[in-house]
Write a structure and sequence with these properties.
Oligomer: heterodimer
Helix content of chain B: 40-55%
CATH topology of chain A: Rossmann fold
Number of domains of chain B: 2
Strand order of the largest sheet of chain A: 6-7-8-3-9-10
Largest sheet of chain B: 6 strands, mixed, barrel
Largest interface: A-B, 28 and 25 residues
Order of helices and strands of chain B: HHEHEEHEHEHHEEEEHEHHHHH
CATH architecture of chain A: 3-Layer(aba) Sandwich
Number of helices of chain B: 13
Order of helices and strands of chain A: EEEHEEHEHHHEHEHEE
Distance between the termini of chain A: 22 Å
Shape of chain B: elongated
Strand content of chain B: 15-25%
Radius of gyration of chain A: 17 Å
CATH superfamily of chain A: P-loop containing nucleotide triphosphate hydrolases
Chain lengths: 222, 404
């Protein structure tokens, strides 16, 4: 489904000083997989996730989405792919503070240009009920707990039914009990609905809960 | 629709969270719009006022004066041209104009400014010497007593008709003036009537309410050359105006050269005066419009701040699939709303001020001003919002979302 083909990513951190975050990484993620990218901080795992999630462009190499070469797409097409293909879950939840829980969940649907095959209202209601945040629908993000915020973020990532959910340290800002609840939720989503999930983490215990571990050290898969 | 709702909601939420900032930013536009709308309202009022003044003086009037007054394009001459004041109209001219069939009245006028004395009071004012038709032509009626007649004129009767303000000044009230004596120079006149009020006297125009009207033949005492400073003709109808003017011209050309007299249509005079005022008004409005530009810069400034404050939000929206244009429109919409809020508030306050001013002066806000205020403030929102919005749209998604 997703193929990363010898991707390099270089950053110019100062004049003439180049830092190479990704050194020719190749990997494939199949539909329905529940995998993790694990590595210490600075290993390039977040950069890899940004490249896979189309937030960043590789310096060299390509990422293929169902055999579509993302490097050949323009900004609008990439935005469309981000909107329909990928759902993000971030460490800091990244909810928009001035929108309610429900509006945050619905946000991706307003950026979708195609006719949706579902009723956004109904689907957001279903997701909120399933994640136990239905009674918080009209609350603002700063009025709910971290665990609830991450559930909102996952609901938001799922609203368009993306092919891939990318979770960047989804438990990083949560206590271990809440973190475990989120992990359980992600596992269920993968098991019950065959949602393809990639978790980026530096915690071995988290990575061990996934079906496939991709280890990155110093910009290379080991 | 939903898209617009979300964008609007996020904009309005931002404004409600930064109330004083929103207020101060909109204030610039508010003041600018107010200045422009109010000045336009005054200009419109002034024109209406001038037109009303002339309308009150009578309709379908043609004034014939010695010399060249208007230049070819209809504006006032900057200086008196050749032949200015070199001729004077006399009774012969009056008689020849009276033969023109398209004119219903011909009114010769001579004026003199002097002191009018009553028993205890005296007043320095204008003596208006004319025939009986002056009252019909100028829409004057006798409020008390009677007006003088052509017979009074022919008999050189020493009778006078006072304008209401003068009657009040000299005798305390218009009624008391009837049958009293006034002295103009060394001559005594009997007050036979007091005319109705004409208004005027503002903006340096003639103060008709302080005039003394006497028959022109009686007035030859003061007008020893028996000349007239203006001949006023009244055409039968508006359609006869052009024809009447041609005939007046033909008649006068038998005796005078082309540049020795001018024929002024009342309506042309109004448009000449109006055009002067509208030029002044346009200049004032243009100066006021500068404040709109300053207001626009204020909006641009705040929008840049807003973009910087919300880099993270922009990153999140981009990660969720917002296109560059989605972000561009979001910020553009916000700056337009901000500017439009100021514009509408400015319009509202202008309306209140105009309502108040209307007690004294016929200022008014027309549909054009409303459209202009709304249009210009939206345009300012777009023009001054486009650079900050473009900055927001051009942010790289990854840098925006990592921004703390």
């Amino acid at each position: 489904m997703i193929r990363v083909d010898t991707v390099w990513k270089e950053f110019e951190i100062d004049k003439g000083v180049v830092f190479t975050a990704l050194k020719g990484i190749s990997l494939a993620i199949k539909k329905g997989e529940f995998s993790s990218i694990i590595g210490p901080s600075g290993s390039g795992k977040s950069t890899l996730m940004h490249v896979i999630g189309l937030l960043d462009k590789p310096s060299r190499g390509s990422v293929y989405f169902n055999d579509i070469d993302a490097s050949q797409l323009n900004d609008n097409e990439i935005s469309k792919l981000r909107n329909e293909f990928v759902g993000f879950v971030f460490q800091q939840f990244n909810l928009i503070p001035k929108l309610t829980v429900k509006e945050n969940i619905l946000l991706p649907t307003i950026y979708s240009r195609r006719k949706l095959s579902f009723d956004p209202e109904k689907r957001s209601q279903t997701l909120m009920e399933r994640f136990g945040i239905a009674e918080k629908a009209d609350s603002y993000p700063n009025k709910i707990s971290g665990g609830q915020q991450q559930r909102v973020a996952i609901a938001r990532a799922l609203i368009i039914s993306p092919e891939l959910v990318l979770a960047d340290e989804p438990t990083g800002n949560l206590d271990s009990k809440t973190g475990q609840e989120i992990m359980k939720l992600l596992k269920e989503l993968n098991k019950d609905e065959q949602v393809t999930i990639v978790i980026v983490t530096h915690e071995k215990e988290i990575a061990e809960q996934t079906n496939r571990q991709i280890q990155i050290v110093d910009g290379k898969i080991v | 629709m939903e898209y617009l709702f979300f964008t609007l909601k996020s904009a309005l939420f931002d404004f409600s969270r930064n109330k004083s900032r929103t207020f101060l930013t909109s204030l610039g536009i508010l003041i600018g719009v107010m200045a422009v709308v109010l000045l336009t309202a005054f200009g419109l009022g002034l024109r209406a006022y001038i037109e009303q003044q002339f309308e009150d003086l009578g309709t379908n009037l043609i004034r014939v004066v010695p010399g060249q007054i208007l230049n070819e394009s209809g504006g006032f001459r900057s200086s008196a041209g050749p032949g200015f004041g070199s001729i004077k109209f006399d009774e012969k001219d009056v008689r020849s104009l009276q033969r023109i069939r398209t004119l219903t009245s011909v009114v010769p006028v001579f004026t003199n400014t002097t002191t009018v004395e009553a028993r205890s009071e005296s007043k320095y004012t204008d003596i208006y010497m004319s025939n009986a038709e002056v009252f019909t032509v100028l829409n004057l009626k006798a409020e008390y007593g009677t007006l003088f007649t052509d017979l009074d004129n022919d008999k050189r009767a020493k009778v006078a008709v006072l304008a209401p303000n003068l009657a009040e000044d000299l005798f305390g009230s218009p009624q008391k003036a009837i049958n009293e004596q006034i002295k103009i120079g060394k001559q005594s006149f009997k007050v036979i009537g007091v005319a109705n009020s004409k208004g005027g006297g503002g903006f340096g125009g003639p103060d008709f309410d302080s005039f003394v009207y006497i028959p022109y033949k009686t007035g030859f005492i003061y007008n020893t050359n028996k000349e007239f400073i203006v001949l006023i003709g009244q055409a039968r109808s508006e359609n006869d105006m052009t024809k009447a003017i041609k005939e007046i011209e033909r008649t006068l050309l038998k005796r005078y050269e082309e540049d020795e007299f001018s024929i002024l249509r009342q309506d042309e005079l109004i448009s000449a005066i109006s055009s002067i005022f509208s030029v002044i008004n346009t200049v004032l409005v243009a100066i006021a419009a500068i404040s709109l530009v300053v207001g626009g810069i204020g909006i641009m400034n705040i929008m840049y701040v807003s973009v910087t404050e919300r880099i993270k939000e922009i990153g999140i929206r981009r990660a969720l699939g917002a296109r560059r244009n989605d972000i561009l429109y979001q910020f553009l919409l916000e700056s337009v709303i901000l500017s439009l809020l100021g514009g509408i508030a400015g319009l509202f306050f202008s309306y209140l001020i105009v309502l108040f001013i209307q007690r004294f002066f016929p200022a008014y806000i027309d549909a054009g001003s409303v459209a202009l205020a709304i249009g210009v403030s939206s345009a300012i929102g777009v023009i001054f919002g486009v650079f900050p919005a473009k900055k927001a749209a051009d942010l790289s998604p990854i840098e925006a979302i990592r921004y703390e």
